[in-house]
């Protein structure tokens, strides 16, 4: 029987599977197509995680169940609830600790640095979905049905991540093209390395002090989009980036034709003002520190399409 069952093989699920496997532990990695890293300790299984009975069967005997799934960004409202319900049911039937990889959407706009004690006051669809899923898991935990925790990060850095920065800004800037960004280019913004998400997930699953509450992934000090893009160009040996702010009406019009662009409207508050994650609690509790942003950004740049070292794959927790 596997010690750990992971749902999803995006950048976070892959990093978590490899972290555990390289420690010598047995991992079962579930995806719709049987994808994921090759490793003797990783068993890749084809499974639909919304099939509650099948998921419960595959999780039987596991000590920890990691939800690293990533439904299509524009279909969260339809696809997250049944998937999360199946994972929660599998954790209950198997007795495995449930550790979920999540983000900061559930908080909605927050003045100042965001801590885990901030109330969940999301106003957008995706934020309300993430908030509700955690509230359901927490209710099950408090009722004694499961042992649950949630790990939250900001926009991801690392190989294979797909965000506004990695999908649009960096490819244009590194190619010497002007990048038009729907953001305040100089607002401080937190970025989270997927390897640090994996380390925090595993630490939270293994430590009783983590259960029954959320944790923020230790993340490097915030950098603005301009600062981060300039650093990426330095790393790649490219000319200084040419960046321009995209006005809100232009983003709105783009959303009329592209469902993914349409979803960016909801999260504009994260990019038009400071958006800073406070991860003090996880550092003090688990002794985890963030990977230097120079290292996580270098990995990101090497894996961008056209770099010759990899290609991006969607992963929004």
From TrEMBL:
All residue ranges annotated as the NAD-dependent epimerase/dehydratase domain in the record: 6-209
Record-linked SUPFAM superfamilies: NAD(P)-binding Rossmann-fold domains
Superkingdom in the source lineage: Bacteria
Name of the molecule in the record: NAD-dependent epimerase/dehydratase family protein
């Amino acid at each position: 029987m596997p010690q750990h069952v992971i749902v999803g093989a995006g950048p976070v699920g892959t990093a978590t599977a490899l972290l555990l496997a390289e420690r010598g532990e047995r991992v079962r990695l579930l995806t719709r197509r049987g994808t994921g890293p090759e490793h003797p300790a990783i068993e890749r299984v084809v499974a639909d995680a919304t099939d509650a009975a099948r998921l419960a069967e595959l999780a039987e005997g596991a000590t920890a169940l990691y939800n690293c799934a990533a439904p299509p960004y524009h279909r969260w409202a339809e696809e997250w609830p049944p998937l999360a319900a199946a994972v929660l049911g599998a954790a209950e039937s198997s007795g495995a600790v449930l550790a979920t990889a999540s983000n900061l959407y559930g908080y909605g706009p927050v003045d100042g640095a965001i801590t885990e004690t901030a109330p969940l006051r999301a106003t957008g669809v995706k934020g309300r979905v993430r908030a509700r899923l955690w509230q359901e898991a927490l209710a099950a935990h408090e009722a004694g049905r499961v042992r649950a925790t949630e790990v939250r990060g900001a926009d991801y850095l690392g190989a294979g991540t797909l965000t506004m920065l990695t999908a649009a800004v960096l490819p244009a800037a590194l190619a010497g093209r002007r990048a038009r960004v729907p953001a305040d280019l100089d607002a401080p913004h937190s970025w989270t390395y997927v390897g640090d998400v994996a380390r925090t997930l595993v630490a939270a699953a293994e430590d009783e002090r983590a259960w029954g509450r959320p944790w923020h992934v230790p993340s490097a000090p915030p950098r603005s989009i301009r600062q981060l893009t300039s650093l990426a160009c330095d790393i790649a040996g490219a000319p200084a980036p040419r960046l321009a702010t995209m006005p809100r009406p232009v983003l709105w019009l783009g959303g009329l034709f592209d469902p993914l662009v349409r979803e960016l409207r909801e999260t504009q508050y994260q990019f038009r003002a400071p958006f800073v994650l406070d991860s003090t609690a996880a550092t003090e509790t688990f002794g985890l520190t963030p990977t230097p942003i120079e290292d996580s950004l270098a990995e990101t740049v090497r894996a961008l399409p056209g770099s010759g070292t990899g290609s991006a794959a969607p992963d929004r927790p």
